[in-house]
């Protein structure tokens, strides 16, 4: 039983992601705020994709006189680097938007919550939330933690042979968890959780957050098309809150 609980919460997170995306399309209010959020995120994510891919190709050059094994190794490094860029760009875009335009994510999240649980949406909307400066401090600290852990994932990717697999897998786990954490930012902000409390919250719900963030991360990693789903994913976080995080224990 001890091993099945994390698995159940992981699948519950997966289910919340898919059903949340579907339910989000029903909200008229969401459609009016969706365009504002997606327009900002689309520009930012596309810019990060282009900049990141350029950096990978620029800093991992392949010389014409390189040996065949060196050429293969460099191409593998390029592919791993581009995969990491595509996985990280959506999360970084959302993190920056949460710092600069926190009201956009909150509007979309509350709109999604009204579809899932109108009474809970009213309760959360009435809460004052974290003041602006402490909220920005938490968002920046969260981003710095992600950078630090991603740096470790990059070091793992440098391990010969195994690193080509372990590096992207590690980064995928970090990005899935980090994306779910960012999508829950309006909820955590309303609860006025500081950075330490948010880290404990994430540790408690790690399996559910990874299950929720994994499919969304893979969809959002698709250049141009992926960022169009940001608004729906932000609203879908309401489904994760009601069905998993605030659900009575079995």
What does this structure look like?
The chain is mostly helical. It has one domain (14-245). 82% of the residues lie in helices and 0% in strands. The chain has eleven helices and no strands. The protein has helices at residues 4-24, 28-59, 68-100, 102-116, 118-126, 132-157, 163-183, 185-190, 195-204, 206-220, 230-245. The longest helix is centred in the middle third of the chain and has 33 residues, at 68-100. The radius of gyration is 19 Å and the shape is elongated. The mean pLDDT is 83.
Shape: elongated
- The domain count comes to 1
List segments where confidence is low: pLDDT < 50 over at least 5 consecutive residues. Answer: none
N-C termini distance: 12 Å
The total strand number stands at 0
Average pLDDT taken over every residue = 83
- What is Rg? 19 Å
Q: Return the structural class.
A: mainly alpha
The major β-sheet equals: none
Counted by DSSP, the helix tally is 11
What is the strand content?
under 5%
Fraction of helical residues: over 70%
Topology pattern, helix = H, strand = E:
HHHHHHHHHHH
Features:
250 residues, 11 helices, mainly alpha
Give me the secondary-structure topology.
Layout: H1 4-24, H2 28-59, H3 68-100, H4 102-116, H5 118-126, H6 132-157, H7 163-183, H8 185-190, H9 195-204, H10 206-220, H11 230-245
